[in-house]
Design a protein that fits this description.
Helix content is 37%, strand content 19%. By secondary structure, the protein is of the alpha/beta class. Bound molecules: pyridoxal-5'-phosphate (PLP).
Length: 388
C-alpha cells in the first residue's frame, strides 16, 4: 500500500484506521483508541451511528443526486428543519465549511453593492481566526502562517484584533459591508468571544448597515449545547455558516441568512453542483433528528460540567495545565509544554486529541459521549501528565 501518491500537505500520525463504533476507533492492527477529535468536530454522533447508516442506506436506494435545476424533498425538508430552529429565513447548501464561508463572503459583498455605496466592500475579520483554505476563506483567516505563501489574496479585507473594542471602532466605517467571527475560535486556540465586544460588533453593524457573519462551522450544530452557537450569546448574526457536525461525517455545509441578507442574492448569483443533494440532506436530517428530538444536544450541558470538573481536578494536581477553556464540548486545555509532544503521548496511550493555537489541546468528543468514556479519557490524560 503506497502512500507516496498523496500530496504532502498534512502532518499525519503514523496510523491507518479501519473502523469505528461510537467514541471508539480501531486501526488496521486492531488497536483501540478513544476518539476525542471526532474528525475535528464532525462526528457529532460518533462512528457508525445506526441512524446515519439507515439514512445512507435508504436514501441511496431512492435517489442520490440530481441537479439543482430540480427540487428534491430532502433538500426542502432539511431547510425547513434548520429554519425552524433559528431566527433566520433562507438557506444555501454546499459541501464544506470553506464553501459556506465563500458563499457568505459573496453575499456580504453583494449586499454592500446594493446599498448604492460603490466603496462598501470591506470585510473585517479577526486575528487568530480560521475560516478555510480557499483563496476567499484564506484571505479572511487571521493567521500569517496560512496566508504568507499565497499572496496576493483577495483585496478589501482588514484584520482586526479579536475582543478589542478600540480596534473594532477604529476600523468600522460606512465602507464595511460585513464582519466575520467565530464565537469560539477553534483552530486559533479555543478563544471565546467577549459578550461586550459582541454587542459592540452588532451595534456597529446596525449603525453602518453591515452584515454580521458567525462562523459556527466548528462550534455550531449542538457542540455548545444549542443547535446554533449564537443562541449561547446575546446577539443574533445576519448570516451563519455551518458544516462539520451538520452531516455527522457526510460532507455538507450551508450558509443561512436573515431576510435582509438573503435578499441580496438573486437568480444566478451562486451555485453548487452537489449542494443540497438528496443523499447529503437525508443524512443531515437524520443527524438533526438525533441531535434535537433525540435529546443529544440537551445532554451536552451536564457533560460539559462533568468534563470541566474532572479537568479542574487534574489542573489542581498537575502544574503542566495553565487553564481550562471553552464551552460545551469544545474544550481547550492550555498547557505549559509543546502541545504536539502532549498529543503524541496521548496517541501512544490510546487517545486521539488535536492541538489548537500555540499551546492548547482541544477536546472534541462526540456529543453522545458517555460519562464512563469521559472518565477513561481523564485517566489517560492523568497518565500522560504523570509521564511528563
Ligand atoms: N471555519 C472553521 C471555524 C473551521 O474550523 C473550519 C475547519 O476546520 C473551516 C471553517 C473550514 O471548513 P472545511 O474544512 O469543511 O472546509
Amino acid at each position: 500500500m503506497s502512500k507516496n501518491n498523496i500530496m504532502n500537505t498534512y502532518g499525519r500520525f503514523d496510523v491507518t484506521f479501519e473502523k469505528g463504533i461510537g467514541s471508539k476507533i480501531y486501526d488496521i492492527n486492531g488497536n483501540e483508541y478513544i476518539d476525542f477529535v471526532s474528525g475535528v468536530a464532525v462526528n457529532c454522533l460518533g462512528h457508525s451511528h445506526p441512524s446515519i447508516i439507515k439514512a445512507i442506506t435508504e436514501q441511496s436506494k431512492q435517489l442520490i443526486h440530481i441537479s439543482n435545476y430540480y427540487w428534491n424533498t430532502k433538500h426542502t425538508q432539511l431547510s425547513e428543519k434548520l429554519i425552524n430552529n433559528c431566527d433566520h429565513e433562507k438557506v444555501f447548501f454546499c459541501n464544506s465549511g470553506t464553501e459556506a464561508i465563500e458563499g457568505a463572503f459573496k453575499l456580504v459583498r453583494k449586499y454592500g453593492k446594493l446599498t448604492g455605496n460603490t466603496d462598501k466592500s470591506t470585510l473585517l475579520y479577526m486575528d487568530n481566526s480560521f475560516h478555510g483554505r480557499s483563496m476567499g476563506a484564506l484571505s479572511i483567516t487571521g493567521q500569517e502562517k496560512y496566508q504568507k505563501d499565497f499572496l496576493p489574496l483577495i483585496p478589501n479585507v482588514k484584520k482586526i484584533n479579536f475582543n478589542d473594542i478600540d480596534d473594532l471602532n477604529e476600523n468600522f466605517n460606512e465602507n464595511v459591508c460585513g464582519i466575520i467571527l467565530e464565537p469560539i475560535q477553534g483552530e486559533g486556540g479555543i478563544n471565546v468571544v467577549n459578550s461586550d465586544y459582541l454587542k459592540e460588533v452588532r451595534n456597529l453593524c446596525d449603525k453602518y448597515d453591515a452584515l454580521l457573519i458567525f462562523d459556527e462551522i466548528q462550534c455550531g450544530m449542538g457542540r455548545l449545547g444549542e443547535l446554533f452557537a449564537y443562541k449561547k450569546f446575546d446577539v443574533i448574526p445576519d448570516v451563519i455558516c455551518i458544516a462539520k457536525g451538520l452531516g455527522g461525517g457526510f460532507p455538507i455545509g450551508a450558509f443561512i441568512a436573515n431576510k435582509k441578507a438573503s435578499n441580496a442574492l438573486s437568480l444566478g448569483d451562486h451555485g453548487s453542483t452537489f449542494g443540497g443533494n438528496p443523499l447529503g440532506c437525508a443524512v443531515s436530517l437524520a443527524v438533526l433528528n438525533e441531535l434535537v428530538e433525540g435529546g443529544v444536544i440537551s445532554s451536552v450541558a451536564s457533560k460539559e460540567i462533568y468534563l470541566k470538573e474532572k479537568l479542574s481536578e487534574l489542573k489542581n494536581k498537575y502544574n503542566v495545565i495553565d487553564e481550562i477553556k471553552g464551552m460545551g464540548l469544545l474544550i481547550g486545555i492550555s498547557i505549559k509544554i509543546n502541545p504536539k509532544e502532549f498529543s503524541d503521548l496521548c496517541f501512544k496511550n490510546g487517545l486521539l486529541v488535536v492541538t489548537a493555537g500555540t499551546n492548547v489541546i482541544r477536546l472534541l468528543p462526540p456529543l453522545n459521549v458517555t460519562l464512563q468514556e469521559i472518565d477513561d479519557v481523564i485517566n489517560i490524560l492523568e497518565l500522560v501528565m504523570k509521564k511528563l
